[in-house]
Design goal:
It is a single chain. The chain is an all-alpha fold. The protein is built from 15 helices and no strands. It is globular. Pfam families: MFS_1.
Length: 413
């Protein structure tokens, strides 16, 4: 995959920007608590405002990219991030709270642009491996970004850390703008309104199934992080949480690389279902060595599941709305991350840390079952017309330009 022209620099710049974006909440939390001397609840409100903005802004920015192109939208997002992160250390809390939401709306759409570019730069047979590699870089960003922010906070002021995170986001976004990767293949038409199918033609049961499974995956993952901390706190070993999370991340990287090398793709619902089943037994662990072993099984399935979601979205979304579709995917993933912690936290408070792993695993299983049932529905009939041809390929179809048909009696995604 790295030999594909333009792939290596794209993934490198994407890794830089994504590592900073995964650390932005941590940087703002530390600034509000340490520099402004406010409570963690106040810091959580800022984090929630930023996350809400990102979730709402993803589809909107994606739609604008579909219509106007990458170089018309990305500079505005980069400029907004530059102004916000530069100004944060000089702003009072109330302004930071409101500006965080605005910054989230205009967050550089690194993930969605990278996924669009991968779909355009690779042949259909290469995309599963390419999206697996993209998921691996995502795992690396989650492992590196917050850890670097915490280490830097011990050596520098919270304001300097905020500036550093903002600088990395700006540099990453500017790098993607300079690379200007293709977002459509050579045989896909331009972004005119006539080339954009109506939303009801592509946002059907199968796309909703994929988005639901993406949401369920991140609910599970954020819940697992919380359950790890709760388990080790009960055992008096909370200082080992970083080691367990690192093992979880590294096994996910290994799983993504192995999945990308397999000759055939696996259904998204099956991968998510296996991930849910592998998560529940982790609640039996009582100390950090056993917990490392317990989360390794779930880790091996994490990157493959995330890459399968990205692959399915790219195959179901027509070229004219691919930006909006990947924006919806990012919103679903962010919503899952935001909801997973409170849901699993409530389960832990009502039972025990083991209940957190059970709740996270059951959330994944429920999302997998929902996705399977939705994907069994036959596709809606398409009316001939300029917006209906060519039809997007579906995972159960053979022709590239024909309406997909689900295999009778089976889940197709």
């Amino acid at each position: 995959m790295l030999a594909v022209p333009g792939m290596a620099p794209l993934l490198g710049v994407s890794l830089l920007a994504r590592a900073a974006i995964t650390a932005d909440v941590m940087a703002l939390t530390m600034y509000v608590v340490l520099a402004l001397g406010m409570s963690y609840a106040a810091a959580g409100a800022v984090a929630a405002a930023l996350t809400a903005g990102v979730a709402l802004g993803g589809p909107l920015l994606g739609r604008m990219i579909d219509r106007r192109g990458l170089r018309s939208v990305l500079p505005a997002a980069v400029a907004a991030q530059f102004v916000f992160w530069l100004a944060v250390p000089a702003l009072p809390y109330a302004v930071v709270l409101g500006a965080s939401f605005a910054a989230g709306l205009l967050m550089v759409p690194v993930q969605s642009v990278t996924r669009q570019a991968i779909a355009a730069m690779t042949a259909p047979g290469q995309r599963r491996a390419a999206f697996a590699l993209e998921s691996v870089t995502g795992e690396l960003s989650y492992m590196v970004g917050p850890a670097v922010v915490i280490l830097c906070a011990a050596k520098a002021s919270p304001g300097a850390v905020v500036w550093g995170v903002g600088a990395a986001i700006v540099v990453g976004g500017a790098g993607i703008a300079l690379l200007d990767p293709p977002l459509r293949t050579g045989d896909e038409t331009g972004g005119d309104a006539a080339d954009r199918p109506r939303r009801r033609e592509w946002l059907g049961a199968r796309m909703v199934a994929v988005l639901t499974m993406g949401f369920g995956t991140t609910v599970l993952l954020s819940g697992v992080d919380l359950a790890i901390v709760a388990t080790l706190e009960q055992a008096g070993q909370v200082s080992w949480a970083a080691v367990v999370v690192a093992v979880f991340g590294m096994t996910s990287v290994v799983g993504g690389l192995v999945y990308g090398a397999l000759p055939r793709r696996m259904p998204t619902w099956l991968l998510l279902g296996l991930l849910g089943l592998a998560t529940v037994p982790a609640g039996l662990a009582r100390d950090w060595p056993w917990l490392c072993a317990a989360v390794a099984g779930a880790g091996l399935l994490t990157a493959p599941t995330l890459s399968a979601v990205s692959d399915a979205v790219s195959r179901l979304a027509p070229a004219g709305v691919r930006g909006e579709a990947t924006g919806l995917q990012s919103s679903a993933l962010n919503a899952g991350f935001a909801l997973g912690s409170p849901v699993v936290g409530a389960a832990i408070d009502a039972s025990a840390p083991a209940g957190g792993f059970a709740a996270a695993g059951l959330a994944g299983l429920l999302a997998a079952l929902t996705g399977c049932l939705l994907s069994r529905r036959p596709p809606a009939p398409r009316t001939p017309g300029p917006s209906a041809a060519p039809a997007p390929p579906s995972p159960g179809s053979s022709p590239r330009n024909g309406p997909g048909k689900a295999r009778p009696g089976g889940c197709s995604i």
